[in-house]
Amino acid sequence: MNAHALAILEFPRLLGVVAGRAHSAPGAAAVRALLPVTDREVVEAEHRRVEAMRALVASELGWPA
Fold this sequence. Notes:
By secondary structure, the chain is mostly helical. It has helices at about 5-10, 10-20, 25-30, 40-60.
């Protein structure tokens, strides 16, 4: 996706909102550096990672910060 399309979709603003919820400056910087991914395998791997993290947080063990 080109920069103009991302600007129309307000992608930089979205990254700013998400980065604002980061718990550290390096985490916020990592979020601001993200770019959209279209590779199906990469997207599916990320979904599996997020699903595993959500399951851990929702478990009895939780996720102590």
